[in-house]
Amino acid sequence: MPFPAESIPDGALFAPHHFLYGLYLVLFRCARKWDNYPRTEPLVVAGSALFALFGWAHLWRYYPVAGATVCVVGTLGTVVGGLVTTKYGRRWQLFVVWSALVALDDAISHAFGVWTPLDWLWNFAWRLGDSAALLA
Questions:
Q1: Closest Cα partner for 49 from 84, 97, 15, 4?
Q2: Where are the domains of the chain?
Q3: How far apart are CA 56 and CA 25, in angstroms?
Q4: Fewest CB within 10 A of the end CB: N or C in the chain?
Q5: What's the rounded Cα separation, in Å, for the pair 51 and 36?
Q6: What is the DSSP string of 62-127?
Q7: pLDDT digits (tens, 9 = 90+) for 19-48
Q8: DSSP state, residue 51
Q9: CATH number for the 9-135 domain, one of 3.40.1800, 1.10.287, 1.20.120, 2.40.50?
Q10: CB-CB contact of 4 with 68 (8 Å)
């Protein structure tokens, strides 16, 4: 199986992807905490999220292996950073880790071509909608 499984995720990098939305939510939460504690900003989390987004937006199309690798590594860094950053409270930590795991789900799906939990949920909901439309 080639790596990455898709040369361009779903053929459109900026189509709706939960990779993008998950990391945008992480960056939003980081921005909300940025000035709460002087000189102790969530740099690992924000930096890892930006690194992953850079891989998605600027590398994947032109250098698929490097782009996919940067996406997966950056998103894993965001998850780990969220787990070890405890100074902002448990709610912030859980939200950041959850959002990063949502993004990681999509990155793994596109990079490795494997079926992930959110893909399953999305397709299940899509089939339910199609079934409801047929019954109407």
A1: 97
A2: 9-135
A3: 16
A4: C
A5: 23
A6: T-HHHHHHHHHHHHHHHHHHHHH--TT-HHHHHHHHHHHHHHHHHHHHHHH----HHHHHHHHHHH
A7: 999 999 999 999 998 877 777 789 999 999
A8: H
A9: 1.20.120
A10: yes
pTM above 0.85, yes or no: yes
| Tens digit of each residue's pLDDT (9 = 90 or more) over 103-118 | 999 999 999 999 999 8
Residue 73 tokens, joined: 């590594």
CA distances from 132 to 12, 58, 136 (A): 29, 40, 6
Distance set, CA 67 to CA 3, 45, 73, 105, 133 (Å): 11, 19, 10, 16, 39
In this predicted structure, the answer to whether residue 54 has a pLDDT above a threshold of 80 is yes
